[in-house]
Amino acid sequence: MDISFSAQETRFREECRDWLHANVPCEKRPLDPTEALPFDKAWQRTLYDAGWAGISWPKEYGGRGLSLIQQIIWLEEYARAGAPWIGANFVGINHGGPTLIMNASEAQKSFHLPRILRAEEIWCQGFSEPGAGSDLAGIKTRGRVEGDELVINGSKIWTSFAHVADWQELVLRTEEGSLRHKGLSWVICDMHAPGITIRPIRLMSGEAELAQVFYDDVRIPLANVVGGLGEGWRVAMSTLSFERGTGFIADQVKHAITVARLIDDASASGAIKNDQIAGELAQLRAEVAALRAMTYRNISEVVRTGQPGPEASVIRLFTSELGQRIDRLAVRLKGQDILDFSYGDRDDTQEYLRHYAATIAGGSAQIQRDIIGERMLGLPKSR
Amino acid sequence: MDISFSAQETRFREECRDWLHANVPCEKRPLDPTEALPFDKAWQRTLYDAGWAGISWPKEYGGRGLSLIQQIIWLEEYARAGAPWIGANFVGINHGGPTLIMNASEAQKSFHLPRILRAEEIWCQGFSEPGAGSDLAGIKTRGRVEGDELVINGSKIWTSFAHVADWQELVLRTEEGSLRHKGLSWVICDMHAPGITIRPIRLMSGEAELAQVFYDDVRIPLANVVGGLGEGWRVAMSTLSFERGTGFIADQVKHAITVARLIDDASASGAIKNDQIAGELAQLRAEVAALRAMTYRNISEVVRTGQPGPEASVIRLFTSELGQRIDRLAVRLKGQDILDFSYGDRDDTQEYLRHYAATIAGGSAQIQRDIIGERMLGLPKSR
Amino acid sequence: MDLAPNTDQIAYQTATADWCRDNMPLDQARNRPAGLWKQLAEMGWTGMTSPEMGLNHATEALVFAELGRFLAPVGLLSTAVAARWVGGDAKVALAIPGDGKLRLFDAEDTTAALGIWNGKAGLTMVPGTIEPRPGLDLSASLSVIDLDLIPNPLEDPRAVHHLQLLAAAYAVGCADAARDMAASYAKIREQFERPIGWFQAIKHICADTAVRCAVARSQLYYAACALDAGDAEAAFHIAAAKRLADQAALENARANIQVHGGIGMTDDATPHLCLKRAHLLSFIAPVTTADLLKG
Amino acid sequence: MDLAPNTDQIAYQTATADWCRDNMPLDQARNRPAGLWKQLAEMGWTGMTSPEMGLNHATEALVFAELGRFLAPVGLLSTAVAARWVGGDAKVALAIPGDGKLRLFDAEDTTAALGIWNGKAGLTMVPGTIEPRPGLDLSASLSVIDLDLIPNPLEDPRAVHHLQLLAAAYAVGCADAARDMAASYAKIREQFERPIGWFQAIKHICADTAVRCAVARSQLYYAACALDAGDAEAAFHIAAAKRLADQAALENARANIQVHGGIGMTDDATPHLCLKRAHLLSFIAPVTTADLLKG
Hints:
The complex is a heterotetramer, with two copies of chain A and two copies of chain C.
Chain A: H1 7-23, H2 33-49, H3 68-80, H4 90-103, H5 106-117, E1 123-126, E2 142-146, E3 149-160, E4 167-173, E5 184-190, E6 196-201, E7 210-221, E8 225-226, H6 232-243, H7 249-269, H8 275-305, H9 312-334, H10 348-354, H11 365-376
Parallel strand pairs in A: 1-4
Antiparallel strand pairs in A: 2-3, 3-7, 4-5, 5-8, 6-7
Helix pairs in contact in A: 1-3, 3-7, 4-5, 4-6, 7-8, 7-9, 8-9, 9-10, 9-11
Chain C: H1 7-23, H2 36-43, H3 57-69, H4 75-85, E1 93-98, E2 101-105, E3 112-117, E4 120-125, E5 133-134, E6 141-145, E7 152-153, H5 158-188, E8 190-191, E9 194-195, H6 200-229, H7 234-260, H8 271-282, H9 289-293
Parallel strand pairs in C: 1-3
Antiparallel strand pairs in C: 1-2, 2-6, 3-4, 4-7, 5-6, 8-9
Helix pairs in contact in C: 1-3, 3-5, 3-6, 4-5, 5-6, 5-7, 5-8, 6-7, 7-8
């Protein structure tokens, strides 16, 4: 066990830092997803041109083919530099792309992957449904095979960037009458296809980045199925092992930066003289450190064995709940200023409101605890 | 709504206070249950002779037949005066007796009730079993009818004062093959009957007041069944409505006294200058006040309607968890002194260790939350 | 001693709840019709606390908990306190001073605002130039003034307790609303082929909302009665009621959002209205640690 | 960067756990045989931290977490720190000074005790007249001396961090033991005709024990490596590890008792051994808020 990085890794970190220092844009990323689109595309293109897109993606599809540790170093430095969120490119880079790498045909990969890296394609996700949130296997959106096409009907919800996306990673039921995890397929859906309607959803933090998507006899070629008809559950789950614990690095670095800032602010304002506040800040600082340690430990396990350690399932839960604790203290320290918040503001209050999603989206805290109890401790399955 | 007591009630409170002031013994109640027995009997006899036993019990069985409010006034003043716990008389006075009043035959009542009030009989409880703790309906101890007797085999656990008790309120399965709540009977079991073996259980706080009781062909007359064969569940549940929210008054007053003492001590020691400590004490003081208000509200509901209000089920859970929060702060304030604790000590550490039972005994906190969710909010039953 | 509402009080409660349900539903809290205040005045809600009405604080607490359950305008709180300690039933804005600023809520068509300055209730003039805008709590318009106007203090020290009590009642109502919303949703929303309220994880979140409501409401009743009785510890009991009610409102709002899942995060749904209201209430006549350790 | 144990380290871990399981089972913690310390010395556990053994702190942390999992004597902590910074492998009692008293643990057959005085590690003489008795933690004998003996301070400031680190490792092991005990019991104990671990209420209590272990153990590894690397923030990382490990040990012990129900309350059962050990560990080289805000 050792916390020091190799000379090569340290050099790589310096390269990242230097480039980011010189290139991170001064202007803020616009909040409105439509306004943000040109910004997101330009920034992704800049990253790509400088060789920072797809650091751990295979070289043949435009990636750098570097190590997992380098990927993490990049993500850490990216967050520390306050570089903008990749926004509309998020699903393609962090989810759709990795899933294609693991599961898609050569034709699918060589068409889409370079375009994703260059921001020539925007992707969105289509997993959750109004009736299938925590219970992903309850999917009802269906695709009927007609000749060499799927005819799709149903609805998806919580889709980020639906109105600006070109493609969607869509999981639907292609086997009529199939139940739960069986009979699902993972499909590349053309978001410009006729029959698609998009209804934006505004959140209580003011953002309107999400949408509900409706499918009315939407026709998608069977060639767009990834990993085979009926293999949707396996394909959707495979992404998790590609991410291998890197998915939360940005959040974690952000948590650490926020806690450091809160400590500085509370020291400056004198709020830290209150033992209660000081105690809570101290506790959060310890927890943020432990979160990094836990992530490093998990990554080390991946490097050593190719698989995340059993604690990987803890990281998601702890990251989300710690983030909420931080945000709650942040707004308490703001005091009455929280009352001035209005939609469109981008401050600690907005973060606080946004982060109620952390224990809901991507598997609620309740589901995460079931998983930890069942998979880590071997307790009997309740569902 | 009104918090003032009537002139008559205020006079009654003064009478209670005066008598207690003059008569509460200086010596501490011994911790060992066998040593404590003569103390408990003498004190109960003193109470009885002065007219303070069975305040709300019917006059014809030796009680005072007074109002529920007066009962509460007595319990409050009793706890405030630091009067000794009634110890070995607890089950007879607070549980066995009330159950007999609600369910027993005239012969059973006129035999047992006066003896309970005069401490001529000591009672113990026989509900829980090694395999049936939270799940009371899982009782396996069985009684086979033979002629005019029940022949009892099985085992009960968590029985307080088993080794000094004369009688036991015993719930067992009298209908072979019956399931869950059906086929149970509530029986007055003679603890001196042949075939009974008692194994004491020491707790992690050092007390050895509890025991496991084994029944090996123990013969009890059928005449000792209360409320009819097979009516055991109904009889056992009926006690709850007799208690009508008075069961926790002693704990509540003790909580209030403890919090006041912790505030005084922390003020004297300067610990209260720590904002965290002060904040926690302030919170506990508010909660202790609310607990009294909630109890008063529930009692008012009983006086008005004859039934406890829907919030009655909250009182048990809140009392137990609040008590644990208080104890935890108490031992934190003691600091290193907690390390000196040894079995036999009677201090905050012993209380703290003892009170782990509060969220377990008599229905775990988990079961209480199920009940609140299902009965107060109408959520679907999980079990 | 009687901490259960009597027949008259139950009638007030029921009448309030019925009127609110028909005329001021919670899901319209962010979008109240322009004429609402006139309606409130006509129905007598704005003047019911004036001395000549003879309502005791216990009954007020019951009525304001019902108003709070429907997220009635916070301006009713300041108006009610002014009605009792100044007189009349004119609309009075709610003032929250602090950090060299003055925040006014529901200040449209008012000339005065009531708030707490250094532990004392006071009235201040509302400048003619304010420009109300939406704030965190979408049910209340906000006007921020960048200096702290000097108030005229109210003489009776009980005015502070009155505002605390009524704000606590609003918070209890807000906590009730969140509890009921969560339980209702848990009964109808299905996941894994069962209502989510079947799962202990959700059931226990809901149970805890019920515990917080029971605790806070009980202390509210006690505090109101203590104020009515001139009890020596009334100030402590009101502070305790306010603290527990604020906590119940905030924690129940959070629980309600979690129970609602994704829907609970959306602007269209109602759970966030309770959350934002809870935050606002916590700044109205807030309680300090010292308030709870006194007496 | 590598925070997973390497092959050698895993061998140390396994050997320690195997030896403990056979020779020092947790359920005998309150009743260790008189010859245990001799056995520990013979096996080399008492001297393994001495400089000539060349073990790094990371490996020590792994080994002490295993020892802690079996509630090994707390005297091993003081002995290990003395072995490194004073030399030798003689048994050294653990000292906890405070409130004008000195508490000595495992002081039988010792002449010196090691503890922290005003933030500095020191050694003090053990008087010949002590009368060890059982204290809260039944696995450690206690001798209370009613004056605070003057210690000889150890020169190297790292001795404090070393004691904190090893005590944190013990606490991580203690938390692990409680987690495993709770999960095992939840699998076999049935209520309502199901293993209680099937119920979400119990399952989630168990899941939280696993979260606390993962968090505390991760930070323990990082802290040990930071001390090995002479990292500028090592003191903070060790303080964070100690705080999180103490919390994990205490909270997991509580969770384990709750999962065990009535049985968990009894003196015969093992859950209370973890609880009492957790309390004792929290007073060994404790961490302050300032320690966590520094650096």
